[in-house]
Design brief:
Layout lengths: L13 H14 L3 H17 L6 H12 L14 H15 L4 H17 L11 H17 L3 H12 L5 H11 L5 H10 L12 H13 L1 H7 L4 H6 L8 E3 L5 E4 L3 H7 L1 H6 L32 H30 L3 H17 L22 H7 L11 H15 L4 H15 L21 H4 L11 H11 L3 H4 L8 H34 L5 H18 L2 H23 L12 H4 L4 H12 L20 H13 L7 H17 L1 H4 L7 H15 L13 H17 L3 H12 L3 H33 L21 H10 L17 H33 L3 H17 L10 H7 L3 H18 L1 H9 L7 H13 L5 H27 L18 E3 L6 E3 H11 L15 E2 L1 H14 L11
Antiparallel strand pairs: 1-2, 3-4, 3-5
Helix pairs in contact: 4-5, 4-6, 5-6, 5-7, 6-8, 7-8, 7-9, 9-10, 9-11, 10-11, 10-15, 13-16, 15-19, 15-24, 16-23, 19-23, 19-25, 23-24, 23-27, 25-28, 27-29, 28-29, 28-31, 29-31, 29-32, 31-32, 31-33, 31-34, 32-36, 34-36, 34-37, 36-39, 37-39, 39-40, 39-42, 40-42, 41-42
Length: 1051
């Protein structure tokens, strides 16, 4: 420090000038001089002081440098640069290998003091020139060293308090040495390999982010050789192949696990509170699931659990935010790093595809979530299961082993990766959903992003998809290069949509279905398994219901529904649903299936009654959700899968009944005019929905139709919706209304008969010598109108399976529960029939298609069973009726009221049709029904008098009509081949050539869309009118005095 130095002009080093020129261009060439002038002006303005004297300038520099001994020559801004260079050289020589680092630290301390208050005035004009001298000297010292020395010294400097600008300049300058970026990144990234949630090594990751931010060359080094092969995406050679039962290779080991444990981004995604099965038993205590604080939580208070979850969330969100910061940095660095990140995520999604598929059920496989976890629960509580597989801890270890063999990422890493995708989706504004390319999944050059989704089933048929591919050639999302920045939003959206299926849903369904189920079932049976399952549920819930995660997930759900609505409507008005176009046909059906399943998984089952949406749905706009669901419900052109349409109406039902604010949307445009047609269409659409081959009693179809009837009951309470229903049934929707009511009548008959026969068989079994069995199989009788054919056929096919096993035993259930379920379904269906008969009686009678079915197979038949001798054969007590939810009084009241509704619309036509019913109608039955109604006060006042008059008039007219019919010798070709009754409007089936009454033919087509004789498809418009035969019949009926349906054409 005591050495003398000369203030001379130093020749500039060419490489230093070049580097400094670049940096100065980045900062601007004039800021320092401008800053000096502003500082001088500020100081002169404040105190009017003249320029700083040489003595004062020397004093300030000595304060900043804090030298042990003052130099022989006075310091000034003119000579301080030379002094710093000489002093740095002396320090470097004095400290040996760490000399360069110590020299720069000496300079850095001077820089820092010049910025700190209390050392020199902040208005001193010499601060900027001094810092520029420090920067020049530091760069000179650093750039004169070797590549290895640069890296070592920079790493040492980053562990010390070096000013940000100075360090960034040094890092940027060192990047000009081509060998430095790769060495630097490799040295910093390597310690991240062993990151865990309790050892995040945040300092190393922050250091890496700081280096990458300083110069794009460091980012490029990450995705270039040799770092790319070593740390970013190591080369993968499958070590396992998967074979089917025929020993054929069906797949090989994926690279998901290798990306998780062997890549830089995998190390960022790896810290998690889950995946305890990946840790050796000797280190289980280091995980959240294995720690003592998470043990025995089954009896813990919610307050303690919330505290534990909050602690996990703090650690986890910190780790996720750092990972997101790293990814954001790489995405902004250029096309190559951006595509590298997207391809890494795409590879992880492709590897995780098996986790989102129904197969591979534990314990043989690795998925716990299929069948709502019931299969795993059954295996664990089965006494014949090996003890090893009855332990949830062992099953989790087996799942981790499967992950290594199959190569898919574990649950925790999958969840963190999906969280990253949600972070990337967050900047996409809802109004930009229309800009996302619907044709992107059709591309053949993005396999590295979408993997198997390119082969997924589309909404369109083969020809429609081919047309969409032609239209896509004019779309940027289909033609632009994958690295084009314009595609980034579409790429992120589709990656997130795929991640929903492969990453989030398997983990969420395991948590909300399997872990909760195991914890409940084994609460008393096996406390160890119950506690472990409850612990894993709470740990997963800490992420799945974390506030930021829910907010981002809600944003994606909202974006998804907006995109679906736009694609379904082709950019136009979504309701009423227009014909689907190429944008809809190109979409994978899984896009809709997954979002519906997500909403079902996230419905809050324990939510208190409130008008405010909670959880996920507080972040979702109801309008695009409800409109999209209505499109799916209303149009079988958009969605042909009846089960998917049924799931859409179930979600609509849950949302509207959970949140009154959503329910009110049904009374606002456009739903106030469209919800009734949508409900009617979806009721018809789920007719062919069968959950499985063993759904012999159509229970799944009934489960889907229940929400539709609830929504009808809800909406038709308002006058506006009743007016829509009236105009719809009298206009373009009459045929669909008739078809819906036909199916509703069939359902009610089937449900009532199923329940009553179940009760009968229960009592028969109970009276047997062995006392019966409550677990015997419930009967599956065929419903009226020929609908039992499917049940009989399936039951015949299911008589035996492998080793003569009774396959139908899988549907065995408790008798009373089975009967109670079907009485409940029947009650709900009857209520809907009653409501429609009350509101639409004129349309029902005038339609002439279903009035006969309603009166004969429904009202007459039910009254016959309820007050006739059949009722006594049930042998059930009133208390048992109450237990089963069967209320004969309410049912008889509804039947009587429906007779009144129909007779008020057209009394003569109703009486004529009832008179034709020789199977169920009798004066005695209706007389008993009238007495029953009067005895229990089911009808009173004017209604009772009207029903009494109707029954008496009906008895007189029936005798008259039957006498005329019996006296006439009706030719055989005048009789309907279905009903054996005289026809009024004969038509012929085109294939079988059978001639039947039009109303009977239409009713059959509405139920099955098939010719009952040839079993071929047929439409109403295909029926061939028999005009000449019709005229003959009407002349004959006029002559004999026989009443015809709809009247006689010669009257």
């Amino acid at each position: 420090a005591g050495s003398s130095f000369r203030s001379v002009e130093r020749p500039a080093l060419p490489w230093l000038c070049s580097h400094r020129g670049v940096r100065c261009m980045k900062r601007g060439s004039q800021p320092l001089d401008g800053q000096n002038q502003s500082m001088d002006a500020k100081r002169q303005k404040e105190d009017g002081a003249p320029a700083v004297s040489a003595e004062k300038e020397n004093a300030m520099l000595l304060k900043v440098l804090q030298l042990p001994q003052a130099p022989a020559q006075m310091l000034s801004l003119a000579n301080v640069g030379q002094f710093l260079e000489d002093e740095a050289g002396r320090i470097a020589r004095q400290h040996g290998p760490k000399g360069l680092q110590e020299a720069i630290l000496f300079l850095a301390r001077g820089w820092r003091r010049s910025e700190e208050g209390g050392v020199v005035p902040s208005t001193w004009a010499g601060i900027a020139p001094f810092q520029e001298a420090v920067l020049t000297t530091s760069l000179t010292q650093l750039l004169s060293s070797s590549s290895e020395e640069k890296v070592s010294n920079l790493l040492g400097l980053m562990d010390n308090p070096v000013p940000v600008r100075l360090l960034n300049e040094l890092l940027s300058a060192a990047a000009e040495d081509d060998a430095v970026p790769a060495m630097m990144v490799g040295r910093i990234a390597e310690p991240l390999r062993d990151r865990t949630l309790n050892d995040l090594r945040s300092g190393h990751l922050a250091m890496l982010i700081r280096v990458l931010r300083s110069n794009k060359k460091y980012v490029m080094a990450v995705v270039s050789s040799p770092i790319k092969e070593e740390l970013w995406k190591p080369a993968h050679e499958p070590k396992f192949v998967i074979r089917n039962r025929k020993k054929e290779v069906v797949s090989s080991q994926k690279d998901g696990m290798q990306l998780q444990v062997g890549s830089l981004l995998g190390w960022c995604m790896k810290p998690t509170q889950l995946d305890s099965g990946m840790v050796p038993p000797s280190q289980a205590h280091t995980t959240e699931a294995g720690s003592n604080e998470w043990a025995d939580l089954r009896r813990s208070t919610r307050q303690r659990i919330d505290g534990l979850q909050r602690g996990v969330q703090i650690k986890l969100t910190g780790s996720q935010q750092q990972a997101a910061e790293l990814v954001d940095l790489m995405l902004r660095a250029g096309d190559v790093p951006r595509m590298a990140v997207l391809e890494w995520i795409g590879a992880m999604l492709t590897a995780a595809e098996p986790r989102g598929k129904q197969g591979h059920v534990a314990p043989e496989g690795f998925n716990f979530w299929p069948q709502y976890g019931n299969h795993v629960i059954d295996v664990m509580q089965n006494a014949e299961t090996p003890p090893f597989e009855r332990s949830l801890k062992n099953l989790l270890m087996m799942q981790a082993l499967h992950a290594r063999i199959y190569g898919f990422p574990t649950s925790g890493t999958a969840l963190n990766t999906f969280t990253l995708l949600l972070h990337l989706c967050k900047p996409i504004k809802p109004e930009h959903a229309a800009n996302i390319s619907a044709f992107f999944p059709l591309r053949t050059d993005v396999t590295q992003l979408l993997g198997g989704w390119q082969k997924a089933a589309k909404f369109g048929e083969k020809e429609q998809v081919e047309t969409a591919e032609e239209v896509a050639k004019a779309d940027v999302g289909f033609t632009a290069a994958p690295a084009d920045k314009a595609l980034f939003k579409s790429e992120v959206f589709w990656l997130t949509a795929k991640g929903l299926e492969a990453l989030l849903l398997p983990v969420a369904k395991e948590a909300f279905h399997t872990w909760q189920g195991v914890a409940s079932v084994f609460y008393d049976k096996d406390p160890a398994n119950s506690d472990l399952a409850w612990r894993h549920f709470l740990l997963a819930e800490a992420t799945l219901k974390e506030s930021t995660f829910l907010e981002n997930l809600g944003h994606f759900v909202d974006l998804n529904f907006r995109f679906l609505s736009h694609a379904a409507a082709g950019g136009g008005q979504p309701l009423p649903p227009p014909a689907p176009g190429p944008t809809w046909h190109a979409l994978p059906s899984a896009l809709l299936e997954n979002i519906l399943e997500l909403c079902d998984v996230y419905r809050d089952r324990d939510r208190k009654k409130t008008s405010i949406p909670t959880g996920l749905f507080v972040h979702v706009d109801p309008d695009p959700v409800l409109q999209t669901l209505c499109i799916v419900m209303a149009s079988d052109d958009h969605v042909k899968d009846p089960s998917l349409r049924g799931r859409a109406v179930k979600l609509l039902h849950r949302l509207c009944f959970a949140f009154p604010s959503w329910r009110e949307k049904l009374n606002q445009p456009p739903l106030d005019k469209q919800i009734i047609p949508c409900l009617l269409n979806v009721f018809i659409g789920v007719e062919k929905a069968i959950m499985s081959y063993y759904d012999l009693s159509y229970r799944y179809k009934y489960e889907l139709r229940g929400p539709v009837m609830d929504l009808f009951d809800l909406t038709l309470q308002t006058e506006g919706h009743r007016q829509v229903l009236d105009s719809f049934t009298r206009g373009e929707g009459n045929d669909r209304f008739q078809k819906m009511l036909t199916q509703m009548i069939n359902d009610s008959n089937s449900q009532q008969e199923e329940a009553i026969r179940t009760v009968k068989e229960y009592h028969e079994k109970k009276n047997q010598p062995d006392g019966g069995s409550s677990s015997s199989s419930a009967p599956a009788p065929g419903p009226p109108g020929g609908q039992g054919q499917h049940d009989e056929q399936v039951a015949s096919d299911d008589t035996a399976g492998d080793n003569s096993e009774d396959i139908y035993r899988r549907s065995r259930m408790n008798y009373k529960e089975h009967a109670k379920k079907y009485f409940s379904l029947s009650s709900r269906t009857w209520k809907a029939i009653w409501l429609f008969c009350k509101l639409c009686a004129p349309a029902i009678v005038e339609g002439k298609t279903i009035i006969e079915q309603l009166l004969h197979t429904s009202l007459d038949a039910q009254l016959h069973y309820l007050v006739g001798p059949e009722m006594k054969s049930i042998k059930a007590s009133p208390q048992e009726y109450d237990e089963l939810g069967f209320n004969p009084k309410e049912l008889i009241k509804q039947i009587a009221e429906i007779y009144l509704f129909m007779s008020r619309a057209n009394r003569d036509e109703v009486i004529r049709i009832v008179a034709k019913d020789e199977r169920y109608y009798s004066n005695v039955t209706f007389g008993k029904g009238l007495n029953f109604v009067r005895k229990y006060g089911l009808l009173v006042g004017q209604d009772l008098e009207e029903f009494d008059a109707f029954v008496k008039e009906l008895a007189a007219k029936v005798d008259e009509h039957r006498a005329a019919f019996n006296e006439a010798d009706i030719p055989e070709n005048y009789l309907c081949e279905l009903m054996a009754d005289i026809m009024s409007d004969p038509v012929q089936f085109p294939m079988s050539k059978k001639v039947v009454e039009r109303s009977s033919a239409v009713r059959l087509i509405m139920g099955s869309d098939r010719d009952p004789y040839s079993n071929t498809p047929v439409k109403v418009e295909d029926l061939v009118p028999m005009t000449e035969l019709k005229e003959e019949i009407h002349r004959f009926a006029k002559e004999k005095g026989i009443a015809l349906e709809g009247g006689n054409m010669f009257d």
